[in-house]
Amino acid sequence: MTILLTGATGYIGGAVLELLISQGTQVTAVVRSETAADKVRAKGAEAAIVDLSDVAALGRLLAAVDGAIHTASPGDTTSAAFDTAVIDAVLAEFGGTEKHYVHTSGVWIWGSQSRIVENSPLDPPAIVAWRLEQEQRLLESTVAATIVAPGIVYGEGGGIANIILDAPGAGTDAVTLIGDGAQCWGTVHVRDLAKLYVLALESNPGGRLIGASGSVAVADLYGAAHPGAKLMAEDPEATRSRLGAQFADALLLDQVVSEQVRSRDLGWRPTEASLQDELAAGYRTAGQPA
After folding, report:
1. Residue 44, Cβ neighbours under 10 Å: how many?
2. Which Pfam families match (predicted)?
């Protein structure tokens, strides 16, 4: 089996690539440069230097593989157009076939809720509202598609968790929170998340799968990262000014992810250390070899 993977040099995609290769899967990694190509080849993948916005070129690659996982994202205002192009190619090449496709979303699309499962009402903040139209195209198509919606991804010293370490006042006796810190985030270790992507690719359950190992109050995360410091609430408007309105609105969401998500029904069992524990251990060095 040969799998096409986008984002193979990125945070999530890099973990997915390593897991696929460790299982003996042949991977064609779509990259943007020869430098990136060298990186994925060093891990055991084939490299294809293609612009993902080139629907025809991506389509030719999709036609030559047995399945695909899409984790790449520019993470900016071009994200909607970027995913539109990828989905256009997937609909054209995988529609009506038995080839499995795994797409990346995020838990933010459910907005603030006290018990989030996959069929909970969707209420995305502005930063991810564009996802719904594109995901609906997939869900209504004849593509054997599964959409993985990760929580806040952490591990290997990367991701949004670094905002906590670099909070205003870090290293002093008073640290500024995001909002009042009472809101909860659904979180997932990048290695556990990679397992869910591979499981979704293999089993093709269809629909959405939430990838979150648990939910934790933001203030508890700050307390773990800054032991002994006084945690100072921040007015939401000040948070929006500091981090940017749309990003802040997402981080201010109060999301409690239920343990009764479909991912668990598939046998997904997160095993990595919690974000709280990793922050308490130093995070940027947690889990790193000595």
Report:
1. 16
2. NAD_binding_10
Is domain 2-155+187-212+259-270 in CATH 1.10.3720.10, yes or no? no
Kindly give the parts of the chain with pLDDT less than 70: 285-290
Which string of DSSP letters, residue by residue, matches 223-252? HHHSTTPEEEP--HHHHHHHH-HHHHHHHT
pTM of the model: 0.96
Q: For residues 288 and 241, give the distance between their C-alpha atoms in angstroms, rounded to a whole number.
A: 34
- Can you read off the two tokens belonging to residue 175? 């640290």
For the chain, the domains span 2-155+187-212+259-270
Q: How does pLDDT run across 103-156, given as a tens digit for each residue?
A: 999 999 999 999 999 999 999 999 999 999 999 999 999 999 999 999 999 999
Residues in the chain: 290
Distance CA(195)–CA(92), nearest Å, equals: 27
Are the C-beta atoms of 109 and 122 separated by less than 8 Å?
yes
From residue 147, how far is each of 9, 103, 111, 268, 283 by CA, in Å?
20, 5, 17, 15, 29
Q: What is the pLDDT of residue 285?
A: 67
Which two three-digit tokens encode residue 9? Answer: 């040099």
Regarding beta strands 100-104 and 144-150, do their DSSP bridges make them parallel or antiparallel, or are they unpaired? parallel
Q: Name the amino acid, one letter, at 2.
A: T
Which helix (H) or strand (E) element contains residue 135? Answer: helix 131-139
Helix (H) or strand (E) holding 209: strand 207-211
Q: Is 206 left (phi over 0), alpha (psi -120 to 50) or beta?
A: left
What pLDDT does 234 receive?
98
Angle at alpha carbon of residue 202, lines to 8 and 118, rounded to 5°: 90
Confidence (pLDDT) at 224: 98
Q: Which position has the token pair 């343990």? A: 259
Is residue 161 classed as helix, strand or coil in its secondary structure? helix
Contact 154, 194 (CB under 8 A): no
